[in-house]
Amino acid sequence: MKVTVLYTKSTPADRHIEYLQRKLESEEGIPVTMLDADSRDGIALAELYGAVQRPAVLVTDDEGKLADKWEGDLPIPQRVADAYRGSL
């Protein structure tokens, strides 16, 4: 499983994004890939998964199949951890 956060730099959500990343990585042991939504890779990933709002949190399996997605408002870290571990 993989957790990716698509974000836009210098937004009011920066603090919340950093909090989510810190909680997942340090407390849950879940690696988080941070990806600028305006980068080439960020745009391609957003199009692939239909993520139109920022920030977006994507949980995908090892083959790239979407397991869960949140857009606009960030989920609580536990919801992301549950999706990552497959306990939806």
What do you see in this structure?
The protein is α+β, with helices and mostly antiparallel strands and 88 residues long. It has one domain (2-85): Glutaredoxin. It contains three helices and four strands, in the order E-H-E-H-E-E-H. Helix 1 (14-27) crosses helix 3. It is globular, with a radius of gyration of 12 Å. The chain starts with a strand and ends with a helix. The model has no long low-confidence stretch (mean pLDDT 93).
Q: SSE layout and pairings?
A:
Elements: E1 2-7, H1 14-27, E2 32-36, H2 40-49, E3 56-60, E4 66-71, H3 77-85
Parallel strand pairs: 1-2
Antiparallel strand pairs: 1-3, 3-4
From the helix content, strand content and strand pairing, which structural class follows?
A: alpha+beta
CATH top level class name: Alpha Beta
CATH superfamily: Glutaredoxin
| N to C succession of SSEs | EHEHEEH
Which shape, going by the Cα principal axes?
Answer: globular
Name of the CATH architecture: 3-Layer(aba) Sandwich
Distance between the termini: 13 Å
Q: Give the biggest sheet.
A: 4 strands, mixed
What is the percentage of strand-forming residues? 25-35%
Low-confidence stretches: none
Name the features.
88 residues; 38% helix; Glutaredoxin; alpha+beta; 4 strands
Question: TL;DR of this structure?
Answer:
The protein has helices spanning 14-27, 40-49, 77-85; strands spanning 2-7, 32-36, 56-60, 66-71. The protein has 88 residues and is of the alpha+beta class. The longest helix has 14 residues, at 14-27.
